Amino acid sequence: MGTILDYLSWRGDLTLKQSPFNEVDNLLLAELSFLELTDIVPDVGQGRSVKLHRAVEQYFARQEGKEISMGVLVPDQILIMAKEMAASPRFRNMPLSGFRSILDPDREIQFAALTIDTGDGSLYLSFRGTDDTLVGWKEDFNMTFLSEVPSQQLAAEYLRETARHSRGKQLRLGGHSKGGNLAVYAAGHCGAAVQKRLEMVYNNDGPGFKESLLERPEYRAVRERIVTIVPQSSVVGMLLEHDDNYHVVHSSQQGLNQHDGFSWQVQGTSFVRMEERSTEGRVNEKAIRGFFANLDDDQRRQFVDAMFEVLSSTNVQTLTE
Description:
By secondary structure, the protein is an alpha/beta fold. It is built from eleven helices and ten strands. The chain has helices spanning 4-11, 23-32, 52-62, 77-87, 134-142, 150-164, 178-188, 192-195, 217-220, 279-293, 297-312; strands at 50-51, 95-104, 109-117, 122-127, 170-176, 198-204, 226-231, 247-249, 266-267, 270-271. The strands form two sheets. The chain has an eight-stranded mixed beta sheet with strand order 1-2-3-4-5-6-7-8, sandwiched between helices. Strands 9-10 form a two-stranded antiparallel ribbon. Helix 9 links the parallel strand 6 and strand 7. The chain is globular.
């Protein structure tokens, strides 16, 4: 067994023609959107695509040799991953386009997305999860009392816009953590015409929604194409209302650290499956559900606003600070 980094060593020399797109490829591309590619990769319809290896070269050249930290909870291994993908025949020539990044403290928005042409007739739309900013975490917590948050609306808009600029292409969506939530939301709110082009939607340990989407017609139309992946003691993926149809994979970490996709164990072209979630995972879910059940929306809002008012009172903008 190994990790997604080991997978790059084992299978990175195989093109998608030799070995078709798989769930491990999905997680690698989901993590790629954590790179800040503004002024390197153009927004949707704003310019020519950039090969992955050139985008990565420009990203590191822009740092001018300075040490890069992704933040407190975003894995620095993403930087290693990007370099190895840039050197890999499987990924290095994939065209990147549609990079969009919005950070708006006043509207409490942290959103980013990237489109990767996988070369097999499909595009992978990668939605970034929560980054190191307090704004990003505030938006996450807002999900506990809002039916939808701005990033979800932006994700659906991004999908529709990308679809208009890429006629003839099939579409895969994916993201890790909040990015997985955005992918699912976008799939359900993009319209019937775009839904017909959706090949697969990957939710990599993303949280659920304040209100269940399961019975809504727009969700039922794509439900069978949604692949939800959670580690054995998942906490984040069990938050709020979620689909109980998910794949449990083995993580080498413990507790909340299992959320780190670089700890998920890989064998061949798949993650290592487990028959069910761990006892710890089920206990955690029960405790979290019990906590939220005792708070109404106003109480949740007051709690979240008070907590982040304290955190931001010293003018910090990131978890690292």
